């Protein structure tokens, strides 16, 4: 049956038109699988058929029709005005060094957004109003077809496939078939191997994850300003967000400047927090005799969960919280995890003071910092 | 199928079409058709019928916001520079002038502050992305709750699930591009996720970042994934999704004249095209208004990414919120070391195991359902959620799981806004994530079954008129009137559920039947799924009830209509297709 | 045109308008005048008024503070180890008192983990007296002068540099708790870092100096006075900067953005879909030519 004859219109004169054979429409569906019970019970209530179509006021009342026309045209005109206002706004409001503002907001962004938005909304509402009020709105009926192909098509296709396969002779020549499949499978290797140099040759060294730029005698400096920290200037309750001095090279300290990826990687691993607390509050886990200076204690700033920098420090509880997933570490107790998903304490940086009284590292961290990884314990 | 077409018009025009001389448009059309043969294809589809219901337009929101994404995205690429090269910012934003940052960040600031309309386009792009994924999810829920994923639409369901996954990845790669502090924190967490992968994790991280985190490669790589790879796949899958929609024809709600064999609605040209086209402009307009009025991702306040900085409220965009919530509620210390190798359950479980598992569960839903029910028929009529209580309850349970995990991802914001403790919220979520879905399942299923029972009440005893009558004996009763035929038919236009019978262990010859174990499981599941459902009344039951009602009515007062002021007490009097008529 | 202001972008533009000079002159006059009235009488009888002030402060302290902090401000411990009803105030300095009492945090309505900001109980004079008393117990940080936390005295270029530098220090030391926008954030066990919007520069300086409640110190050995000044300048500048992008949705980041995407975006579009698919009014009449 052609598509044209499947498609019917609900009769538009207020009287229900038969649109087909009701009994055919309401025929009970049958299961096509034998193991499902087939029910041939009729519906308890027969299908009354599509209700008659009613006209809209705009269909029968020329006044209403005209009114709708005017409304729709007004919306399109409003859309034009909005679009023109967009152009006006584009050229009249400055951005850059000298933003115009409107009620404390950027005049350009707000006015462009509002004029563009209104223009689009007016067009959209106008079109939909047109469809709802003026376009013919009798419901149409279209017949469905099964998604499956007709049985004869299926058979013909299978036949064609079989013929094709038979003529190719692939089935009869397993040697050819298997080597062909094999050759294509092996072609996957070049595709995978090609990706090897996503990281440069020497970059695949997991050992790097275990070491940072910290080395014995390197000063701890304040982050951002890069100034070294006198142990005597730090008060109980202080939190210093700090970094290794090597990341702030000057002529005096003699460190050579790092660039780009190397600098970022060392920054990402070397960040630390320094706090000072009453030395009596420190537990043996913090190695108060060896690694701290008068209650000044230093930990990696990188969370051992997935590596966010953490510095939400509470001075009275000595807890530090990660803003990403709320792992909480007790800095007075070896940065033991007291809450949240992290599994390991923050690595501690062994501290000392140099001749001038500045805080220095005794060594690198004694374990890898940051998120866990497969080979972590091997290093 | 034989259909009597003699009395039905094939067009809803009132005057006969008359052949006229082809104008310039006509000549162009025949020129094109001479070469492309378009007429055959278009003849079939120009007047294709689409049913009209608000819930059928949810997918359109996703489609149109995707178009907005393409348009605004192309605009952004004209200025955005996906490079991690280091520059000192010298642009218009005072607070960052003189600060070192990547070219990606600097060009994002340039788009925001020095390109007219650039900030609007950035914000529209971001809002459209949030709405794109939200609309896909709302559309997915509509399809699931109405059973539209049943045969023959299972594959389209699977494609839809893949679109959701790809949309999410596209969103993540997109919001990571500006290289600001918030997105950089997200990328660093993603590095942590990669490293938690057993065996290959560290290498995967090195390969993605081109060395150690953060490297100088990640932004250009995410960029090409974001603007070429994923959009290409998205476009292709959306095309297949739409083609299958056209091929299957849209599902429809059951009702008078609406059957499994037909589709009743408006033709593609002109009504449906106008409505869909108009809706495109509305989606575009709403996104433009949001982009102009509501600030989103103010990267200038976050500043450039610096691996030593972080901000409170470091959260991903909403669609990545639920795995983030799962990460947050894992109890302390879930990590083990086996043979010297570290296995981070605390990251693997919420990121690498549960979300992919959820996706697989989602994709398998239609297949599992059809295996349990043994129903292999095509379905084009939708089910009301109440008429598939178990499916509805399963979906609500999944939604509850998702919602709780999602809320856990915002636990710090909830804590500030509600003056609660993050710790208490987290403890609560650790329990609720298990108890909540079970409770939701149970409540939803009972609720659906009650609604089914209510439907049967309406069919058998009619609706409550609000008229109280007193019998001569002094007994008070509320008068019920039957609902109209169309409403009654609509209520009964659903299948009876068939519990799969347990097959015998042995076949007729006494040999153990194959598959008997899976058969038994299936029978059990089928009775679990359908056992409590209320079936529609049979014709005999209806007959008996109506007979009884007539008898009652005779005994009661002679009113055959509701008293004044109660005519519309029952909205069902107004059939779904008929709004009250008015004189004007 | 009150609403439309063509000079909000660069900080410096304010002073370039034709009226800007007059405004600055006027502000300068007002400022110096009020500073004069505030400071001038003090040197005349400072010695005598200091002792009076301390005595007045002690009196206020005994009635309003001693219950928790002890008669001599030595602090009172509770039964629970490590917890105090009120900590010792010896050595906290005038800055701590000025912050806690001036922002209304002290006296607390009831003992708890965190004292919220509220209407101050004491007026300026009483606060000053309390501060003088506590400062007299032991040396501690003094109340900062306006010059400590204001960049008014700097040249235009220096000010811009100070703001940019302050932003980096803010993002390194403050945003972790107070959020990128200074909107505040959650801390463990129901604690929170308060919103910094609208907080006077003096109080921010004092808070940095003294570390109120759970907040760590940022003493001068940690963040130099210039660092603190720059942070305050940055905070002021982001509050003065126009919202280029529209309403900020609370400045809370992606959570509130997600909420708006759902409520406003999906909400309005689903509403539109309902309207598009709804049925229009029908007429009882039938078409004449049908």
Structure notes:
The complex is a heterotrimer of chains A (379), B (584) and C (290). With 379 residues, chain A is of the alpha+beta class. Chain A has 2 domains: 1-145, no CATH class; 208-378, Rieske [2Fe-2S] iron-sulphur domain (Rieske Iron-sulfur Protein), CATH 2.102.10.10. Chain A has 9 helices and 14 strands. In chain A, the strands form 5 sheets. In chain A, strands 5-6-7-8 form a 4-stranded antiparallel β-sheet. A 4-stranded antiparallel β-sheet of chain A has the order 9-10-11-12, with no helix packed on it. In chain A, a hairpin with a 5-residue loop joins strand 11 (328-330) and strand 12. The longest helix of chain A is centred in the N-terminal third of the chain and has 31 residues, at 62-92. Chain B has 584 residues and is mainly α. Chain B is 57% helix and 6% strand. In chain B, a hairpin with a 2-residue loop joins strand 5 and strand 6. Residues 1-9 and 571-584 of chain B have low confidence and may be disordered. With 290 residues, chain C is mostly helical. Among the domains of chain C are: 48-143, Cytochrome c-like domain (Cytochrome Bc1 Complex, Chain D, domain 2); 144-241, Cytochrome Bc1 Complex, Chain D, domain 2 (Orthogonal Bundle). Chain C has 12 helices and 6 strands. In chain C, the strands form 2 sheets. Chain C has a two-stranded antiparallel sheet with strand order 2-3. In chain C, a hairpin with a 5-residue loop joins strand 4 and strand 5. The termini of chain C are far apart. Residues 1-18 and 39-46 of chain C have low confidence and may be disordered. Chains in contact: A-B, A-C, B-C. The interface between A and B is large, with 137 and 155 residues. Strand 9 of chain B pairs parallel with strand 6 of chain C, so a sheet runs across the interface.
């Amino acid at each position: 049956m052609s598509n044209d004859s499947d498609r019917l219109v609900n009769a538009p004169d207020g009287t229900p038109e038969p649109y087909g054979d009701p009994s055919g429409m309401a025929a009970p569906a049958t299961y096509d699988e034998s193991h499902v019970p087939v029910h041939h019970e009729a519906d308890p209530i027969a299908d009354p058929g599509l209700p008659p179509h009613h006209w809209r006021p705009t269909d029968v009342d020329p006044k209403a029709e005209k009114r709708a026309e005017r409304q729709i045209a007004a919306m399109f005109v409003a859309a034009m005005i909005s679009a023109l206002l967009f152009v006006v706004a584009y050229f009249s409001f400055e951005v850059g060094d000298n933003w115009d503002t409107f009620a404390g907001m950027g005049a350009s962004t707000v006015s462009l957004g509002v004029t563009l938005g209104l223009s689009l909304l007016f067009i959209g509402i106008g079109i939909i109003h047109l469809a709802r009020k003026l376009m013919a709105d009798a419901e149409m009926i279209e017949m469905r077809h099964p998604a499956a192909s007709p049985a004869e098509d299926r058979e013909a296709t299978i036949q064609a496939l079989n013929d094709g396969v038979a003529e190719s002779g692939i089935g009869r020549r397993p040697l050819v078939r298997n080597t062909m499949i094999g050759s294509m499978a092996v072609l996957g290797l070049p595709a995978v191997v090609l990706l090897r140099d996503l990281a440069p040759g020497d970059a695949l060294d997991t050992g790097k994850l275990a070491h940072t730029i910290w080395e014995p005698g390197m000063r701890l400096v304040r982050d951002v300003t890069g100034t070294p920290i006198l142990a005597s200037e730090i008060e109980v309750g202080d939190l210093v967000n700090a970094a290794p001095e090597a990341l702030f090279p000057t002529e005096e300290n003699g460190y050579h400047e790092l660039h780009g990826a190397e600098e970022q990687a060392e920054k990402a691993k070397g960040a630390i927090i320094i706090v000072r607390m009453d030395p009596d509050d420190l537990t043996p886990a913090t190695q108060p005799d060896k690694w701290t200076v008068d209650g000044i204690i230093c930990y990696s700033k990188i969370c051992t969960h997935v590596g966010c920098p953490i510095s939400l420090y509470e001075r009275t509880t000595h807890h530090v919280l990660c803003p990403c997933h709320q792992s909480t570490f007790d800095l007075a107790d070896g940065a033991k995890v007291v809450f949240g998903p992290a599994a390991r304490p923050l690595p501690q940086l062994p501290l000392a003071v140099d001749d001038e009284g500045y805080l220095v590292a005794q060594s690198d961290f004694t374990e890898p910092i940051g998120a866990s990884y497969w080979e972590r314990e091997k290093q | 199928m034989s259909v009597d077409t003699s009395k039905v018009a094939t067009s809803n025009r009132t005057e006969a079409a008359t052949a006229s001389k082809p104008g310039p448009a006509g000549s162009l059309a025949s020129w094109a058709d001479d070469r492309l043969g378009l007429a055959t294809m278009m003849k079939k589809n120009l007047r294709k019928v689409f049913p009209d219901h608000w819930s059928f337009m949810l997918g359109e929101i996703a489609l149109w916001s995707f178009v907005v994404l393409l348009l605004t995205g192309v605009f952004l690429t004209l200025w955005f520079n996906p490079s991690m090269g280091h520059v000192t910012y010298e642009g218009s934003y005072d607070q960052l002038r003189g600060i070192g940052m990547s070219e990606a960040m600097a060009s994002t600031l340039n788009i925001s502050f020095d390109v007219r309309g650039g900030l609007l386009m950035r914000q529209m792009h971001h809002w459209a992305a949030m709405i794109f994924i939200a609309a896909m999810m709302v559309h997915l829920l509509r399809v699931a709750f109405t059973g539209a994923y049943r045969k023959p639409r299972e594959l389209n369901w699977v494609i839809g699930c893949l679109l959701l996954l790809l949309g999410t990845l596209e969103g993540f790669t997109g919001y990571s591009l500006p290289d600001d502090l918030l997105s950089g924190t997200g990328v660093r967490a993603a590095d942590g996720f990669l490293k938690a992968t057993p065996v290959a994790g560290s290498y995967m991280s090195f390969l993605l970042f081109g060395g150690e985190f953060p490297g100088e490669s990640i932004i250009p790589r995410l960029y090409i994934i974001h603007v070429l790879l994923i959009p290409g796949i998205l476009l292709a899958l959306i095309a297949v999704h739409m083609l299958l929609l056209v091929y299957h024809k849209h599902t429809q709600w059951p009702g008078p004249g609406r059957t499994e064999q037909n589709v009743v609605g408006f033709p593609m040209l002109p009504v449906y095209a106008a409505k869909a086209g108009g809706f495109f402009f509305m989606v575009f307009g709403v996104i433009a208004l949001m982009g102009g009025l509501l600030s989103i991702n103010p990267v200038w306040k976050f500043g450039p990414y610096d691996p030593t900085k972080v901000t409170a409220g470091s959260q991903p965009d909403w669609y990545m919120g639920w795995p983030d919530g799962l990460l947050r509620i894992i109890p302390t210390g879930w990590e083990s070391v086996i043979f010297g190798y570290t296995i981070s359950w605390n990251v693997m479980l919420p990121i690498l195991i549960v979300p992919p598992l959820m996706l697989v569960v989602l994709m398998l839903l239609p297949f599992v359902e059809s295996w349990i029910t043994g129903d292999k028929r095509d379905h084009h009529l939708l089910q009301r959620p109440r008429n598939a209580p178990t499916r509805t309850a399963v979906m609500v349970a999944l939604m509850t799981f998702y919602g709780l995990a999602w809320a856990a991802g915002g636990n710090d914001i909830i804590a500030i806004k509600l003056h609660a403790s993050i710790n208490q919220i987290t403890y609560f979520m650790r329990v609720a994530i298990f108890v909540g879905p079970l409770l939701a399942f149970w409540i939803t299923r009972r609720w659906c079954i009650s609604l089914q029972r209510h439907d049967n009440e309406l069919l058998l005893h009619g609706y409550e008129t609000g008229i109280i009558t007193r019998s001569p004996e002094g007994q008070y009763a509320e008068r019920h009137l039957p609902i109209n035929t169309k409403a009654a038919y609509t209520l009964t236009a659903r299948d009876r559920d068939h519990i799969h019978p347990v097959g015998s262990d042995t076949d007729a010859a006494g040999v153990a039947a194959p598959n008997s174990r899976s058969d038994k499981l299936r029978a059990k599941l089928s009775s679990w799924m359908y056992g409590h459902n209320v079936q529609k009344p049979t014709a005999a039951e209806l007959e008996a009830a109506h007979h009884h009602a007539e008898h009652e009515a005779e005994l009661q007062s002679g009113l055959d209509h509701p008293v004044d002021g109660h005519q519309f007490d029952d909205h069902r009097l107004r059939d779904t297709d008929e709004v009250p008529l008015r004189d004007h | 045109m009150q609403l439309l202001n063509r000079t909000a972008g660069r900080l410096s533009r304010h002073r370039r308008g034709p009226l800007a000079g007059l405004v600055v002159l006027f502000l300068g006059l007002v400022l110096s005048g009020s500073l004069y009235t505030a400071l001038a009488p003090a040197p005349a009888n400072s010695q005598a008024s200091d002792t009076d002030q301390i005595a007045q402060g002690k009196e206020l302290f005994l009635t309003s503070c001693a219950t928790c902090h002890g008669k001599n401000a030595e602090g009172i411990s509770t039964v629970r180890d490590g917890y105090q009803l009120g900590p010792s105030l010896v050595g906290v300095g005038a800055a701590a008192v000025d912050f806690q009492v001036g922002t209304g945090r002290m006296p607390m309505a009831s003992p708890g983990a965190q004292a919220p900001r509220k209407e101050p109980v004491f007026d300026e004079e009483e606060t000053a007296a309390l501060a003088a008393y506590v400062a007299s117990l032991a040396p501690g940080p003094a109340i900062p002068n306006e010059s400590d936390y204001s960049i008014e005295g700097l040249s235009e270029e220096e000010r811009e540099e100070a703001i940019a530098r302050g932003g980096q220090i803010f993002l390194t030391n403050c945003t972790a708790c107070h959020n990128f926008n200074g909107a505040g954030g959650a801390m463990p066990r129901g604690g929170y870092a308060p919103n910094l919007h609208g907080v006077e520069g003096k109080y921010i300086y004092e808070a940095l100096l003294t570390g109120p409640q759970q907040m760590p110190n940022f003493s001068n050995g940690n963040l130099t006075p210039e660092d603190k000044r720059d942070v305050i300048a940055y905070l002021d500048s982001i509050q003065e900067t126009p919202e280029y992008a529209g309403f900020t949705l609370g400045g809370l980041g992606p959570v509130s953005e997600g909420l708006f995407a759902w409520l406003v975006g999906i909400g309005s579009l689903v509403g539109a879909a309902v309207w598009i698919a709804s049925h229009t009014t029908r007429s009882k009449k039938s078409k004449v030519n049908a």
